[in-house]
Fold this sequence. Notes:
Elements: H1 13-20, H2 24-28, H3 51-65, E1 73-77, H4 83-92, E2 96-101, H5 104-111, E3 118-122, E4 134-140, H6 153-170, E5 171-184, H7 194-200, H8 209-216, E6 220-227, H9 229-248, H10 259-274, E7 278-287
Parallel strand pairs: 1-2, 1-4, 2-3, 4-5
Antiparallel strand pairs: 5-7, 6-7
Amino acid sequence: MIQDEQIEFGGSAAAIRHHYDVGNDFYSAWLDPSMTYSSAMWDGLPKDAPLEEAQQRKLDYHAESVGAGEGMRILDVGCGWGGMMRNLRRRHGAAECVGLTLSEEQLAYIEQSGDPGIGAVLSNWHDYRPDRPFDAIISVGAFEHFAHPQQSVDERRGVYREFFQACRDWMQGKGRLSLQTIAYGRMSPEDANPFIANEIFPAAELPTLEDIVVACKGLFRVERLRDDGLDYARTCEMWSNRLRGAVRSGVVDPAIHPVEKYSRYLRMSAAGFRMRKIGLLRIAFATE
Length: 288
């Protein structure tokens, strides 16, 4: 549990490492082969489509939302293990992809890709200073870490405003931003479960849709908005099943890995999405 490191911009390096640096081998045992640790997308797919296919659909959706194509330079804010960047390079022709992460294990994983068109930087978005502009920006599953629970609504929106301003400044003329984030639905911040807040994602705070709309005003306009919370419920349920299977097969050892904690977190998250206490926003933006 992180107690000492709280910074103005929410998810500190220590808070991120608390969740993401528990071992690449642990995550690879229950994520899909692309190591994508965010909600999959079943829109346009058969109802029984497997996780791998739905994750590919999600990666392509965000690439298409920013108009990814030949020769483009694209930034991935909160790049995880690099699945989005690999997809942008292999399937959409991006010339160069740069990812931001605060996880040393994720950085090491990406550096093993061997693709000179993919690079990662150990930095948060607030401190990042690119040497050249980008054509487009994608951020999946990072926005939840930008603010922290002790902030007021105005302070939280101020942080989000700075993020949108940074994205606008990093872009070359007109550009597009594709954002995916968990958000408060029927549940208020006061009702957030302390187990997830303290043990899984310390120093993180979910936004509301209103927070995002207010924060981006004058910088970006919303072109497309989806709430796919049921996709995330299904993803968490599949991850939970895969984690149990990895334990049964001996790939994951409960004596070494945080199996009980993650199993509880995945079950609780799935229930929250099913009951619409929380939602999953997918938002396509264009510069104003």
